């Protein structure tokens, strides 16, 4: 999948580091002189002990503050750990101590520690997250050598030993890194290639998004990645998990925006099963519409025809609309199927078929004759407003081709007083006036009666105004009526009616593996906006001073959701980039703008909170380890106007409460209220789920 296959960094790093280690016959450092039987200043080798004794000895040395204070002695102990590790001894017992040893400015020591962590992370999955957190912090180090080393080490971590959530977190974090060269880009892609084949759909989706983002300048690479994840996506679309199946289908539709025929050879995978829920069936029908080609059109149409008689009226109607959509390209086959469906004389089927015919004769004028021949008699099976409007429109526009058109409209005129939908009455006025122009003798009397009713008796002002307008238009003359009602029709080839053009992958890559494919971009933006606006918290209590500090977490890109400014709405920037120094300096320089306490009963799960905060675009800067008492977390967020929110969460289990302290770089009371309501919602939701 890449242009170059390069040796994994962990291999050459290990080779270089091994050359730096002292050989077996070299003298041990002075820090390990014997306690007795040796002269001051003499150096002797440590006696060979069993692996458990060696681990205990090294752990004791690594924890010794006197050794830690001596840079060379500390490094020599770490070198001994690496040497024993390369000799096959199990050194996993000093994992915690080695992770602590990474907190140094000594590049050589960092390389040694990173080599150790990358080797033992698979054997210590519970502790591997510590290694990842350490590497994440070093990825933001001012020293470019440290950043590069941390990133390479993170890429070479054998993440397959982590659980799927840990792998997904690492892949998500890597989105924040920008490769400095094409060579480095393909190094990273090569290292992460195996995650496109993961058994976890979440990992596959995370890896796919990472590849699409990193390869934004290489469309052929993006296409290759989408080809490779076709299998996992198809498997997810057939998953027993309904939620997973639905999300996968939404992402398939997103991919089809850029690669229309991408899944065409697998169209049968999107046939609906009887036991599937309604929302999954609707997604599959939408996908089938986009997969139709000359080779499979007959099979797809036969499948959709079967859905048209489904016990669910909504699903049956969706299938009919799908056939109508396919009819733009394969008109004759679809019109034949739709005509046969009218013969079933089912109200919900007839209603949607007539609506489909209305749209079809406008977009595909060549099918008008067939549609006009199919319409007689269908008025007996239409009761709802949409179906009536569609039929009346067809009778008005193409009534000269339908022999009984005036008599069908006359039935509607006779029953106009009992009609409850004003839209049907207005459509009837327009259709009857149109038909009057082509068949005046048959329509004159009923048109007069309809105009009289609408002007004199109708209570709906819109219908009355339409009637008055047409009456006055007739007074001007028939030529003026023809000029207005029979003006040139809209061109069905207008861009608005055409199938949307293929979109480049980069136009939606940042939305992949998010809720945007599920809700749609505009709808998700509205939901996000309403989330901050609909809950305005109570009057804020008086604030008090509260200070603390914390480290960092950086960010990926600066795209912001563009919304119409609304004084009552809060739009948080999806991705926020801060440095450790900036966060600490800003936190210490600001006063607490708001502080409150929320109840919290029972246990606390930091990972759940962190994921929930990410959904609403609040970033976790730092947090205590799980189980710590008291527990703290530092958060950051920024709205679309640049207002920065820094937050401290303090959980005190003995008091069963969560204390929230918020600082703001600009004094904006209403915005602060909205932000507090977002925090309250997240914390309250987690509390409800937990309980």
From TrEMBL:
Any single Gene Ontology cellular-component annotation: clathrin adaptor complex
InterPro entries: AP_beta, AP_complex_bsu_1_2_4, ARM-like, ARM-type_fold, B-adaptin_app_sub_C, Clathrin/coatomer_adapt-like_N, TBP_dom_sf
Pfam families linked: Adaptin_N (PF01602), B2-adapt-app_C (PF09066)
UniProt superkingdom: Eukaryota
Main localization category: Golgi
Keywords, comma-separated and alphabetical: Golgi apparatus, Membrane, Protein transport, Transport
Matches recorded under SMART domains: B2-adapt-app_C
Molecular functions (GO terms): clathrin binding
GO BP, sorted A to Z: intracellular protein transport; protein targeting; vesicle-mediated transport
Topology versus the membrane: Peripheral membrane protein
Start and end residues of each Beta-adaptin appendage C-terminal subdomain domain: 572-684
Compartments, as annotated in UniProt: Golgi apparatus, trans-Golgi network membrane
Xref: PANTHER family: ADAPTOR COMPLEX SUBUNIT BETA FAMILY MEMBER (PTHR11134)
Functional summary from the UniProt entry: Component of the adaptor protein complex 4 (AP-4). Adaptor protein complexes are vesicle coat components involved both in vesicle formation and cargo selection. They control the vesicular transport of proteins in different trafficking pathways. AP-4 forms a non clathrin-associated coat on vesicles departing the trans-Golgi network (TGN) and may be involved in the targeting of proteins from the trans-Golgi network (TGN) to the endosomal-lysosomal system.
Family: Belongs to the adaptor complexes large subunit family.
Subunit structure: Adaptor protein complex 4 (AP-4) is a heterotetramer composed of two large adaptins (epsilon-type subunit AP4E1 and beta-type subunit AP4B1), a medium adaptin (mu-type subunit AP4M1) and a small adaptin (sigma-type AP4S1). Interacts with TEPSIN; this interaction requires the presence of a functional AP-4 complex. Interacts with GRIA2; probably indirect it mediates the somatodendritic localization of GRIA2 in neurons.
Name of protein: AP complex subunit beta
Organism listed in the record: Sapajus apella (Brown-capped capuchin)
């Amino acid at each position: 999948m890449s242009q170059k296959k390069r040796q994994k960094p962990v291999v050459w790093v290990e080779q270089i580091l091994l050359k730096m280690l002292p050989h077996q016959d070299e003298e041990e450092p002075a820090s390990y002189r014997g306690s007795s039987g040796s002269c001051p200043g003499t150096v002797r080798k440590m006696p060979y002990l069993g692996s458990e004794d060696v681990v205990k000895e090294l752990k004791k040395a690594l924890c010794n503050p006197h050794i830690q204070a001596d840079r060379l002695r500390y490094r020599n102990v770490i070198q001994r750990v690496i040497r024993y590790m390369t000799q096959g001894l199990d050194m996993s017992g000093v994992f915690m101590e080695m992770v602590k040893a990474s907190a140094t400015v000594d590049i050589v020591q960092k390389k040694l520690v990173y080599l150790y962590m990358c080797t033992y992370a698979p054997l210590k999955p519970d502790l591997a997250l510590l290694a990842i957190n350490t590497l994440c912090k070093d990825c933001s180090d001012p020293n470019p050598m440290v950043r590069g080393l941390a990133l390479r080490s993170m890429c070479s971590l054998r993440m397959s030993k982590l659980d799927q959530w840990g792998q997904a977190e690492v892949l998500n974090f890597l989105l924040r890194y920008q490769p400095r060269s094409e060579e480095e880009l393909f190094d990273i892609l090569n290292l992460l290639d195996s995650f496109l084949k993961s058994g976890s759909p979440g990992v596959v989706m995370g890896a796919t998004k990472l590849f699409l983002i990193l390869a934004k300048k290489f469309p052929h690479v993006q296409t290759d990645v989408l080809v490779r994840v076709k299998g996992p996506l198809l498997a997810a679309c057939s998953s027993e998990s309904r939620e997973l199946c639905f999300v996968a289908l939404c992402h398939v539709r997103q991919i089809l925006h850029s690669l229309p025929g991408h899944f065409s050879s697998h169209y049968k995978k999107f046939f609906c099963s009887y036991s599937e829920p309604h929302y999954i069936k609707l997604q599959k029908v939408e996908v089938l519409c986009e997969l139709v080609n000359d080779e499979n059109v007959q099979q797809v149409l036969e499948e959709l025809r079967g859905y048209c008689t489904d016990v669910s009226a909504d699903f049956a109607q969706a299938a009919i609309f799908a056939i109508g959509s396919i009819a733009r390209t394969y008109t004759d086959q679809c019109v034949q199927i739709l005509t046969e469906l009218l013969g079933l004389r089912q109200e919900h089927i007839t209603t949607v078929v007539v609506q489909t015919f209305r749209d079809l004769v406008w977009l595909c004028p060549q099918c008008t004759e067939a549609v006009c021949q199919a319409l007689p008699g269908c008025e007996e099976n239409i009761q709802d407003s949409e179906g009536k409007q569609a039929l009346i429109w067809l009778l008005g526009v193409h009534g000269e081709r339908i022999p009984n058109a005036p008599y069908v409209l006359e039935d509607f005129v006779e029953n106009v007083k009992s009609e409850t939908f004003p839209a049907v009455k207005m459509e009837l006025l327009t259709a009857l006036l149109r038909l009057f122009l082509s068949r005046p003798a048959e329509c004159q009397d009923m048109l007069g009666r309809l105009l009289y009713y609408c002007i004199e008796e109708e209570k709906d002002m819109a219908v009355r105004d339409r009637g008055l307008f047409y009456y006055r238009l007739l007074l001007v003359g028939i030529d003026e009526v023809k000029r207005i009602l029979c003006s040139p029709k809209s061109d069905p080839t207008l861009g608005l009616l055409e199938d949307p053009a293929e979109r480049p992958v980069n136009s939606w890559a940042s939305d992949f593996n998010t809720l945007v494919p599920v809700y749609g971009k505009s709808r998700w933006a509205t939901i996000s906006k309403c989330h901050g606006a609909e809950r305005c918290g109570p009057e804020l209590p008086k604030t008090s001073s509260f200070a603390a500090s914390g480290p960092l977490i950086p960010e990926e890109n600066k795209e912001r959701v563009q919304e119409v400014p609304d004084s009552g709405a809060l739009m948080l920037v999806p991705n926020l980039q801060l440095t450790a120094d900036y966060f600490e300096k800003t936190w210490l320089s600001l006063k607490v703008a708001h502080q409150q306490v929320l109840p919290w009963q029972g246990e606390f799960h930091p990972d759940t909170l962190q994921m929930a905060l990410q959904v609403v675009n609040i970033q976790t800067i730092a947090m205590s380890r799980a189980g710590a008492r008291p527990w703290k977390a530092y958060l950051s967020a920024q709205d679309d106007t640049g207002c920065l929110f820094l937050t401290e969460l303090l959980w005190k289990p003995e008091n069963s409460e969560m204390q929230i302290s918020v600082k703001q770089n600009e004094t904006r009371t209403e915005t602060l209220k909205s932000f507090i309501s977002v925090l309250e919602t997240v914390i309250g939701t987690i509390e409800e789920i937990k309980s």
